[in-house]
Amino acid sequence: MADPKSETADLSTIPVRVLIVDDDEGHAQAVAEALQRINCDCRVAGSGERGAQMIHAESWDVIVTDLRMGEIDGLEILRLAKEELPDAEVIVLTGHGSIHSAVTAMQHGAYTYLTKPLDIGELRSAVEKASARLRLIRRNAELRRSLDERFGFEGVIGTSPQMHSIVEILKNVAPTDITVLIQGENGTGKELVARALHQNSPRKNKAFVPLNISALPDSILESELFGHEAGAFTGAQGRRIGKFEHANGGTLFLDEVGEMPMDTQVKLLRVLEDRKITRLGANDELPINVRLVAATNADLQKNVEDGKFREDLYYRLNVVTIYLPPLRERQGDIPLLMEHFLREMSRKMGREVQGFSRAARKALLAYHWPGNIRQLKNVIERMLVLDSDGILDIDGLPPEISVLVRDQIPEPDVDAAGGSDSLIGKPMTEVEKYYILRALELTDGNREEASRMLEIGERTLYRKIKEYELKR
Questions:
Q1: Comparison of pLDDT for 451 and 241, the residue scoring more
Q2: Contact, 87 vs 63, CB < 8 A?
Q3: How many domains does the chain have?
Q4: What is the pTM of this model?
């Protein structure tokens, strides 16, 4: 069984590890046999000393210990268990004359106590309840780890100086209610940063509500933001709660805020100043308590100069600005992102992969990534879907990326008939076919040497030879 501290499997299918500590060996074996019938993996320690050694050496889910033993008794076993294995549950066995000591054990963290002679049904029930409680604790811990990985500062991946600076800003800003403006190209992870701000703020138990301004027609944007009453406009058949109300107590993330129409900008500015909203078609103002995080890929200051964005709203949003650099400016972070997305998506797809081939890694590192992190994630997802041998190779890359490793093959005479100049404007399949054939010619048909020259796996090369019906 895996160490429970790092367990991620389906906990309900894993046998419960039970340590039975009792200097009455016959009684201990009877307890073990009774528990083995309810999917328990039982081990017996015939003394308190031996039990202490096994607690120190191994991980246990449940410890069933006799209270009265030799120099190391049940209370000492309980103390050691809580020190070494704080997640483990301890059940104390005692005679009727030691009830007071059993109550003391409960006060020091024992799960429960049972009196001798044991009722087997009662014993099994106690172990099952203790293990169910333990599984619930571990599932919650795993959920927290998952949230931290996805939305915590750990999710803002990167070791470049730019990313270190961004994380430091996030740590300082997250505990406050200050308005934050996130700037950066599309695909740089603006929503991820906004979620990290929310997840590490006092508002983390309330809603995080994202809204992409550019995805909405101007005619319904105000309704989405502020809500409306029945009959407020044609088609408004009932009351609708807007994003500000939905995010009350939490965080509202407005993506592509630079696309907001001027008249809506006026209303947003009023909401930020008064902390109140009015639904369309209503008269009453509603107080709201929302932290606003905005994002844009536009130069808002230039938009202000061009009269496309209100200056007063710009300064309201631009209290703290976080600039996310494009991926091409932080290439040192690409390997970390590659491994992160590979782990994340292979786990989601239930796939086991060994990693990237040298050629694929080289191509991914050489590419300029106009679509930034989002594009990288999509490419790795594509590679996983197309993979057939557990190694993500260049045959799973889009042509515009895989072509970056072709320059390792010596160029032919450009003046020769059918030379590389004739490939200009040709489909990628013809370009790929040409370079594979050229590599086979240069290696006199040695496929192992050709695959090394092309920096692709031999299996990939064999598949391409068959696909293109090459003779060599």
A1: 241
A2: no
A3: 3
A4: 0.56
